Amino acid sequence: MLGGGFIGDFYIHALHGHRRPDRVQVVYSRSESSAKKVAERHGIPHWTTDMMEAVNHPDIDTVVVALPNFLHLEAVRMAAEAGKAVLITKPLGRNAAEAKEMLELVEKHGVFHGYLEDLCYTPKTLKAVESVKNGALGDILWVRAREAHPGPHSDWFWNKELSGGGAIIDLGCHCIEIARNYIGKDVRPVEVMCWADTQVKPIEAEDHAIALVKYASGAIAQFEVSWCFRGGMDLRDEVMGVEGTIFLNHFLRTGFDMYTAVGEEDYVAEKAESATGWLFPVGDEVNSLGYDFMFTDMFNAMDEGKQPMETFYDGYVVNAIMDACYKSSESKKWEPVELEDWRGSDEVSGGPQLIEFDKDHYLIKEEMIPDGTVKLILKDKVTGEIIQKIK
Amino acid sequence: MLGGGFIGDFYIHALHGHRRPDRVQVVYSRSESSAKKVAERHGIPHWTTDMMEAVNHPDIDTVVVALPNFLHLEAVRMAAEAGKAVLITKPLGRNAAEAKEMLELVEKHGVFHGYLEDLCYTPKTLKAVESVKNGALGDILWVRAREAHPGPHSDWFWNKELSGGGAIIDLGCHCIEIARNYIGKDVRPVEVMCWADTQVKPIEAEDHAIALVKYASGAIAQFEVSWCFRGGMDLRDEVMGVEGTIFLNHFLRTGFDMYTAVGEEDYVAEKAESATGWLFPVGDEVNSLGYDFMFTDMFNAMDEGKQPMETFYDGYVVNAIMDACYKSSESKKWEPVELEDWRGSDEVSGGPQLIEFDKDHYLIKEEMIPDGTVKLILKDKVTGEIIQKIK
Amino acid sequence: MLGGGFIGDFYIHALHGHRRPDRVQVVYSRSESSAKKVAERHGIPHWTTDMMEAVNHPDIDTVVVALPNFLHLEAVRMAAEAGKAVLITKPLGRNAAEAKEMLELVEKHGVFHGYLEDLCYTPKTLKAVESVKNGALGDILWVRAREAHPGPHSDWFWNKELSGGGAIIDLGCHCIEIARNYIGKDVRPVEVMCWADTQVKPIEAEDHAIALVKYASGAIAQFEVSWCFRGGMDLRDEVMGVEGTIFLNHFLRTGFDMYTAVGEEDYVAEKAESATGWLFPVGDEVNSLGYDFMFTDMFNAMDEGKQPMETFYDGYVVNAIMDACYKSSESKKWEPVELEDWRGSDEVSGGPQLIEFDKDHYLIKEEMIPDGTVKLILKDKVTGEIIQKIK
Amino acid sequence: MLGGGFIGDFYIHALHGHRRPDRVQVVYSRSESSAKKVAERHGIPHWTTDMMEAVNHPDIDTVVVALPNFLHLEAVRMAAEAGKAVLITKPLGRNAAEAKEMLELVEKHGVFHGYLEDLCYTPKTLKAVESVKNGALGDILWVRAREAHPGPHSDWFWNKELSGGGAIIDLGCHCIEIARNYIGKDVRPVEVMCWADTQVKPIEAEDHAIALVKYASGAIAQFEVSWCFRGGMDLRDEVMGVEGTIFLNHFLRTGFDMYTAVGEEDYVAEKAESATGWLFPVGDEVNSLGYDFMFTDMFNAMDEGKQPMETFYDGYVVNAIMDACYKSSESKKWEPVELEDWRGSDEVSGGPQLIEFDKDHYLIKEEMIPDGTVKLILKDKVTGEIIQKIK
């Protein structure tokens, strides 16, 4: 386990929970006190402040990278060269070039690689994606993925050089990959339109951004990310298809409402901004945020010699889309997604399908009106004229 | 009452409800059968298929225009020239030029004019806007207004020439004006980025569109409109401010859930796409969609010689923003909002406010962490370096 | 208007809202300052501290009783003897005997009488009851009506002699009558089982109670009332029928969520217990609590010479059920509802209906199981044996 | 694993999920085909139709009883006599006498025993109970636990002799134990009032029941159970304390809403009654229903030589409360809970606590009213008179 911060802690919690057999053997942190503390808290046999030592430790077959973004490349290089499997937190790189380098490293060295995109593994997302694959929504038209909260925990996130950007790099990577899972990973992301601004925080990076990602199928993936949100963590997805709709709320409204006039002794709820009044706890955060299913998939895939659901290649695509977002927020126009290494399909959608009504008309809409009759909106095949008609 | 269609019916329902004294005296419709039917259903003394006759009827002091978009200008001209007060359904014009002509007509003739933007008068919106004005959210950063359903009732909506466009013209006008109420009508809409596509329906106009409207204060208003939504009518607003958040759901989830295995005899719920299973009726649609408060404001303003909350000028601003949307969806870049007649402020925001922490640092974030200590993210005033510190 | 307190104020607000023509001409209050203040605030021409003067005022044709419970009988007697229509707030009496006396007074004098049971007129309730009448839920099995908040506004509520009881008299009357509307007013309430306790407040009356009311149809109406609830006003109904289910939330979760870190200047939300954090305002309280539809029904009925939906007779039935509740909470067993004057049906239900499956079996349940087959649970008509079978 | 039915399958799913090391070695079912099928599906090495063989199998150290209620005693006796740890599904017995016999068996033989009351282990329940223990709600006043669905899967449930009852035995056991966790397992359940009826199904047992369980602290636990509910599985808990409130929804509204006009190929959602329209799937049913945390607690306790959270003693208390419920539903009055073996406290609450306001008054209520002043409701210590006062 490389990293003794917030995310590393969450990972160890998930890895060691529910009697799982996979154990963290060594923890590395840049700070000695932090490394020691994490090792003690979780009963991890070894700790070190030397990354190379951690990676090459003989008890280690898998390296989990839970480090700040600017250390990803170095850590992946070490792990790949040591021939160890490597699982890495999001985003893969600070940009597509870095991501590509990491992808090439793991592939060159032939090591197992997993992209720890937990939000694609939330129980709701997994079931919703399955329903979409089963056809419950028909062709996907639009996905909205939103992540907004009052800002990250550690200093390096706020520094553009170290992290690679602001809210887009921190949160957009989740949203982009969630949408890819619904739209289909095989479908090419074509171009991007992005607004990004620094509205509240005295920083250089964006603290709020919205983007539209257009796919070759015609589907639009919209992401909304912010470090200025008030009220907790807003983590929602919406999916529209020709035949249906999905709304997911992962955090703030999950069927757990608590009002307390007095708060709790010795306890402050995570990410909640208040300790009294109406609060909305999540029952099992580790499971709800996807960590349980993510590590199950990673280690099962490793055992079975298969690829996990999320790989370095996915991380690379996400970085390429984010690069286009930053470019678009500067140029103020749609920017193409540059993917030198595209492994999916090159099919492009032909637009809406015409539904034949009779030999002269296409059907636009059929609706029952209050008096019980059925009203049709039809289009003349030749003239293009639109008429209404009672069935 | 000019117009015997769906919206005219809704208006009469609201106008004649709850023992209100204001009565519709004449109904005009292009079709005789429709005019007759409406007059009978609502006990209206006169009907006609001659618009001029309706407008100039001696019992009439106020003309309510509930006609298709392409007839708005003609109707407004007649009413203004007859010196009658005129209330008009949304959108004001098919474009800003038409809207400006109508605005000039009512102002030249000095007649009372109201813009029947019902969704700015929903009880939730009125209360939420009041809270925003009372400072509950601090400065407004972002508004999302969404209206999506399976498509409009009448043929003319689907014809770009007659309506002026597609889902933007039909639904975007609502969303734009809702956002203006939160952000402040005095704040100038500066530029627009819009995606619009025809994803499902065999029509020329857009059946799905998303736009970002940037205001001089730095606030972003996002609208999402669609005629391809499945599951009823999705009518939601979200507002983010520096100090708070508002979520409104006007239609699909308002605290009324019904499951029926058998449906109801002789009745089909409006806009609902199914008659059995889980349904989500709205208690009082007329009130929830804003008609009650809208007509109360209009007639009270008229009686008191004041302007109503929504006037033709608002309709004109909305049309100007929609014009920019159509332009942007073609040019694929941000387009300026052209407002020849701007009556608001020209102030422009100076960006984020710096919060002084001590003589050397600005405060970025303060957060209590699980062990109860308070963590600060600070920025050095001189070097710009970002550090974290335990309080 | 008799009464210058909280409820009288709410009534006047509703009566004078939305350009309604019916105006309050005289306001009576026991306190001069309060009478004056209400008259000024609402522009009411006359005020008095002499109830007789108010009732007999020549401009008055309708007396609205918004007084504490212990003054209801006196006010109704005056109004009835003066030959004026009388509308009275809930509960009708402090017990069934008082209620019966009032019912007899208005009937003897032949005056119009309405029972101002606002919660039976909420938009959601009206629509839900209509769906039930249309058969959407089949036969009604169970109704839960719940009203709970942190306690009433005025001193007299807390005094058992003046009010007639505690949370049951204050809130149970609403819940009982809501349930009657779903189950059918024609169906006889047979017996009652009630728990009532004083859990928190230093008073003699109950501050928390739960009761089951059994109807002749076999339906059970459950009410839950409390003055100890924390978090605002919990106002919910649930209805179960053989074919469906209804859940209504009238107040705390209606699609309006607001988070504010700072609160609002000069404003505190009604019944909300906190001014910051997550708050759940109601858009239009007057409409949502039923006042609009209630007064519309009352005055329309008066104009048309019909009975309103809720009359003194309904108030009497409710009081009789509450009497049985108090008796049961003492005796700790089911107590019959004593209705000397029953005007509904005397039909009693024969229990569950047998659904014939084939000549030897009744059908208990049919369910599709995950592998797609249909499983049946059947009962042998002769032996009564229960078996399962794959269709 | 004794039992090859629905619940056994769910257990194996949970036990074998997420790389857990505890494996089912032998599966027993009364039917050969079912035993074989389960063994194959889950890769279990051995299967048998001989319960004794399964229990005494050398690879087995723990017996999991997932059998119909009427086989519990026999299975527990076998396991206890074989000296094996025993985990048993709910309810423990068909009545308290059976439960007590099983409790005595496991204690006499000194074997580890766990009561598989999964709904006390749902993530939401665990976190909510922790908040209650941390004082967030103050003293608990009332718990409502509700479980309702369209009826169980297997024939034996519907047969009173085999199961021990109807909806109370099937679902009430969950609700009772959930409430005990909030109120405190140390607090004695004193008496019970219960209504039970057969409203819809042609069976002898109750298909709908409601009960109030009174505890020595004065708290009331209310359960509502039904096999007649339409719309899926209604699984909700509500908790009221002096200082706060908790609402939990475990199944039908958890932040996952799906509308599908077409349904899914080859898939029908579990317990959902419809395949199209608005559906409300649960992301991870196994986790949400408590199986993950339940088995983790059971096996961790076993490894650490401790008692799990839920033991046979808890099962016995639940059965005793259900016995009182059946008695009360016959006698139509409150019935004492007979607990020959009570291991908790015998403390009884002294009723509401008086809050001193000044030397002459107790405080009943303090409330801010719309004009910003604070209104107090006070009680005279000597006369008991209740007055209101502006602070």
Notable traits:
homotetramer; 391 residues; four-stranded antiparallel beta sheet; 11 helices; globular
Oligomer description: homotetramer
The span between the termini of chain A is 67 Å
Radius of gyration of chain A: 24 Å
Choose one word for the global shape of chain A. Answer: globular
- Contiguous low-pLDDT stretches of chain A (5 residues minimum) are none
- Return the structural class of chain A: alpha+beta
Order of strands across the main sheet of chain A: 11-10-6-9-8-7-14
Q: Could you tell me which chain pair has the largest interface and how many residues each side has? A: A-B, 67 and 67 residues
Percent helix of chain A: 25-40%
Helix and strand sequence of chain A: HEHEHEHEHEHEHHEEEEEEEHHHEEEEE
Strand residues, percent of chain A:
25-35%
Give the overall pLDDT of chain A as a whole number.
94
Helix segment tally of chain A: 11
Q: What is the β-strand count of chain A?
A: 18
Report on this model:
The structure is a homotetramer of 391-residue chains. With 391 residues, the first copy, chain A, is an alpha+beta fold. Chain A has 11 helices and 18 strands. Chain A has helices spanning 6-16, 32-42, 51-56, 72-81, 96-108, 123-133, 160-163, 167-183, 285-288, 291-304, 312-331, and strands spanning 26-28, 46-48, 62-65, 85-89, 113-116, 140-148, 189-197, 208-215, 220-226, 234-241, 244-249, 256-260, 277-279, 335-336, 356-358, 361-368, 374-380, 386-390. A 7-stranded mixed β-sheet of chain A has the order 11-10-6-9-8-7-14. A 4-stranded antiparallel β-sheet of chain A has the order 15-16-17-18, with no helix packed on it. In chain A, strands 3-4-5 form a 3-stranded parallel β-sheet, with helices on both faces. In chain A, helix 4 (72-81) packs parallel to helix 5, helix 5 runs antiparallel to helix 11 (312-331) and helix 8 (167-183) packs across helix 11. The radius of gyration of chain A is 24 Å and the shape is globular. Chains in contact: A-B, A-C, A-D, B-C, B-D, C-D. Strand 12 of chain A pairs antiparallel with strand 11 of chain D, so a sheet runs across the interface.
